[in-house]
């Protein structure tokens, strides 16, 4: 295939999804190339970004994105952004009578946002003697090349763990005025008017909310030449699961020939949770998953929770990450790194796989729920080869669960997509001296794709899979949290000798990442456990308000039955895969 650009519209539904999305867009921005003489990168940026122009004639480059959140969730960020001038005079008053002005104190900005403001205005940070050339005002993402270089030269060690309240506290790019949609019917904070249940979310997508979403979709879609589909990031734990179910249903009805890849997001913990809210979360997980899976090309949960049931295991431990699972700022950064790799196949400049083909290869025979795994970072010594690194993993796969679904370890898989990102400058094959015997079969292969494919095939024999290698790493720029162990060097590779504590000379600026997206028999018992947990709850007795705005009890029970049948699709026996609803169930 050539370099035809197949555009994608991204939707982010809910506060945690916007946390993950903000980190993800920051990663995409860091990889943009502004030098017109530089060779084109491996990833086609126009798949995700759109070019525009301000009223002042400045060229802009902004995400093709719709981000929905609740009233009070933006803090210092203006809903229309600061990139385009609207032409309205906010001081114009036509009323001739007495006017009483009430001033509300503005939310305070953290150190990162204050520095961004200074750079946007062409000011010089005190930490370093910058080139005084001002950053062009209202120049969108194109101005971020200067911002990136200046922030990196400032060597600022932002520690935002105590100051990040909302996702806009670490947003580093400009957004289009059509991007942010605020749902005013529900509050982000407080005890009253909270979007807590699936039925509340379902009921939202009508009237003005539906019209607003349709207008935003039409704006972004009408300028696309070859729309390949939608990627939807949606909160699972609260009422956004119901809203996401209706949104994906609308996308399927209106754009059924396009790909709809839905990523269901769930944080490890909620700061204001209660036992009753935890029951709501379980019911929202169950209903949201079965409805969004039904309406999407595939559905992939993304979470660092140890499980979605009432007694989850501990969050996964990554050998070279020191992250706090309870901090949304941390956990969302880990998931964004994984998403940066998981989405590579349909973002490539050459030989990309369209979203619908990518999904069809995984969601076979009704198995629309897939699971993600990741090695963050991919453990590789500086200066070693890919066969050496994979050989060091021995018989243990290097990735950890990113969907709360543990690996069965039996080598069975219905389909798999593996992506290795970031071995730029490293050797993909073994560098053996003439006449030297290869120590392993991997060391005898001639290209990196063969090395990785041989390794995957050894662990998953007779399983259809695809592998993708991309040399460019995930580039980390402020304010990505420095959650990495001292064993990693600046490019994210393992060092033979770690520096003494607190003696690292510079931050980790890039990272190699290995991810896997799987349709696996492991999802069967995992979905069955979720079904059992939700089925034991009678919302009429223990949570009567859960069904107050829908769904009806019969619809609720029917959805749980669909989840039960979905779990049975992942059964595997000696004769192969089965997806029969008539088979006797011995899992429940």
From TrEMBL:
GO CC, one annotated term: mitochondrion
Domain DML1/Misato tubulin: 163-348
Pfam families in the record: Misat_Tub_SegII, Tubulin_3
Coarse class of the protein's main subcellular location: cytoplasm
Subcellular location: Cytoplasm; Mitochondrion
Record's keyword annotation contains Mitochondrion: yes
Function: Involved in the regulation of mitochondrial distribution and morphology. Required for mitochondrial fusion and mitochondrial network formation.
Protein's name according to its UniProt entry: Protein misato homolog 1
Organism: Oncorhynchus kisutch (Coho salmon)
